[in-house]
Design a protein that fits this description.
- The structure holds 2 protein chains of 2 kinds.
- By secondary structure, chain A is of the alpha/beta class.
- Chain A contains 7 helices and 9 strands, in the order βββαββαααβαβαββα.
- In chain A, a hairpin with a 2-residue loop joins β1 and β2.
- Chain A starts with a strand and ends with a helix.
- By secondary structure, chain B is mainly α.
- Chain B folds into 2 domains: 31 residues; 219 residues, MetI-like fold (Orthogonal Bundle), CATH 1.10.3720.10.
- In chain B, α8 packs antiparallel against α10.
- The chains are: A alpha/beta, B mainly alpha.
- The complex binds adenosine-5'-triphosphate (ATP) and magnesium ion.
Chain lengths: 236, 254
């Protein structure tokens, strides 16, 4: 369990978190859904230890290995696609062949094998996003933080990566915290959803799903019902 | 990135040609060799110089001093620049020293160097003191220009310091390092030659400049000066070539 209790943080005079608390179960996918500028990225940075906070407590994450899909891709411009992936693997494995094996299978998953020798500047936005996904998936972490990981991907690619992601997740059961502002994505991909709103940040809606994670259809009844419930939360 | 003086060769040579004609016209107008020799007499003087027995020894010794002082400043400038770029406290210790060196008149350094060192090495010391601040400053700026977002990414993925240095810090600093090298190298040639004029090593272009002044051999003064300029261009060209390879990745912002 990752537990955030009584978190306070502000930028200059702007309060982002004012007594904010949240519990995130282990080995499950938790979505955090909320409007732009409310503090979703800040929450992930605080969780990962990149950002400090005024007071409060965060337990269950500081001693874990984390991979992080940042909102901007943060690829190293002078390394190729393949080298960008291997760059993070080299800090974990000494065996060169193992590194190659992992990077190739991940690149295959995100359909980037033909582009593996290209530099980031030679990629489209969606391709860069996929490299960033691949890097986070390849890294042997306990916790995966994802900040709008599917932005810039077309529907076919998104569906195919979502599918691969679910497969991958079943093989390792990582704790995933998934930030998005897309209700459909959140509904498709999570065991539970926190919808946040208002400033400073508050949980305004919470839903857990009992059933096994598999690619749910966007058109089934349950999905549409949940979506309506959530939309009514936003409109009030 | 700097635009190399060697690009656009055709236009460059045309420009040089125009200025040579203007020089010749000025010479004809003044018509006093002692103030301004003709480009032809400079050329003849250069041919004479090149045929002298000691010519190669002279240029080799001066080039050697230039290289030595350049490499010393590169070595120390990059090493201390790296540390100062990474650590604000150490930067604050170094900064006053570098400002002091940079503000001291070259001539004071040359005179001090002559007192401290043998005549052959005082130009090296002077060149070193002039270049070190340039390389240091560029290295500090280069290291500081590293994208903090990439560094955060490295922190998440537990990248070792050495790997970060090699794959993140140094490539970020490379354009700054190159610009520092290029400025410093040009500076070294001028400073080493100037220091040689005063310290008068047995073999050295500066010593020859001094002789030309003593005997009022103005075409020879121009000829040696031209040789310094040419050598400095050749060195710059080699440096550009070495760095050009490392620019292969030239990236855009994402
Ligand atoms: N480094 C910073 N300094 C000052 N203010 C900041 C900083 N980072 C974020 N903020 C502010 O904090 C608030 C929350 O930012 P954050 O990036 O966490 O939003 P977000 O929910 O991720 O938005 P989006 O969905 O657009 O990515 C914003 O109002 C932003 O202006
Ligand atoms: Mg954000």
């Amino acid at each position: 369990m990752i537990k955030i209790s009584h978190l306070y943080k502000k930028f200059d005079d702007k309060k982002i978190f004012d007594d904010f608390s949240l519990e995130i179960p282990e080995k499950k996918i938790t979505s955090i859904l909320g409007p732009s500028g409310i503090g979703k990225s800040t929450l992930l940075k605080v969780l990962s230890g990149l950002s400090s906070f005024e007071s409060g407590e965060i337990i269950g994450i500081s001693d874990k290995k984390i991979s992080f899909i940042f909102q901007e891709t943060r690829l190293i411009p002078w390394l190729t696609v393949e080298e960008n992936i291997e760059f993070v693997l080299k800090s974990q494995y000494k065996d060169g062949e193992k590194i190659k094996l992992i990077s190739q299978s991940i690149l295959n998953l995100v359909e980037l094998i033909p582009s593996k020798k290209l530099y980031p500047k030679e990629l489209s936005g969606g391709m860069k996003q996929r490299v960033s996904l691949a890097r986070a998936f390849a890294y042997p972490s306990d916790i995966l933080l994802m900040d709008e990981p599917f932005q810039g991907l077309d529907l076919r690619l998104k569906e195919s990566i979502l599918n691969s992601f679910i497969k991958l997740w079943h093989s390792n059961n990582k704790t995933v915290i998934f930030v998005t502002h897309d209700i459909d994505e959140a509904l498709l991909l999570s065991h539970q959803i926190y919808m946040i709103g208002q400033e400073p940040l508050k949980v305004i809606y919470h839903e857990s799903f009992e059933k096994e994670l598999s690619l749910r259809s966007m058109h089934n009844q349950e999905h549409i019902l949940s979506k309506q419930k959530m939309l009514s939360q936003i409109t009030g | 990135m700097r635009i190399s003086i060697f690009q656009n060769k055709k236009n460059t040579f045309f420009g040089i040609f125009i200025w040579l004609i203007i020089w010749e016209i000025a010479y004809l107008a003044i018509s006093q060799d002692i103030y301004l020799p003709s480009p032809f007499s400079v050329l003849i003087s250069m041919i004479d110089i090149i045929q002298e027995k000691e010519f190669y020894r002279i240029i080799v010794m001066t080039s050697y001093r230039v290289c030595l002082s350049f490499f010393l400043s590169v070595l120390l400038g990059l090493a201390t620049g790296l540390i100062c770029g990474l650590n604000q406290k150490i930067f604050e210790i170094f900064e006053p020293l570098v400002i002091l060196i940079r503000s001291t008149p070259v001539i004071s350094i040359i005179i001090l160097a002559i007192i401290w060192f043998k005549s052959s090495y005082s130009p090296v010391f002077t060149g070193f003191l002039m270049c070190f601040p340039v390389i240091w400053t560029n290295m500090v700026q280069g290291i500081r220009s590293t994208d903090t977002r990439l560094l955060e990414m490295c922190q998440i993925y537990e990248i070792s310091f050495l790997s970060k240095l090699r794959h993140v810090y140094l490539p970020s600093a490379l354009p700054f390092i190159f610009s520092g090298f290029s400025t410093a190298l040009g500076l070294t040639w001028k400073v080493v030659a100037a220091a040689e004029v005063l310290s008068l090593p047995k073999y050295g272009i500066g010593s020859k400049l001094h002789d030309s002044k003593a005997y009022l051999e103005i075409p020879q003064l121009f000829a040696w000066t031209t040789i310094i300029i040419l050598l400095s261009f050749i060195f710059e060209f080699i440096l550009t070539r070495i760095f050009a390879k490392n620019y292969a990745y030239q990236y855009k912002e994402d």
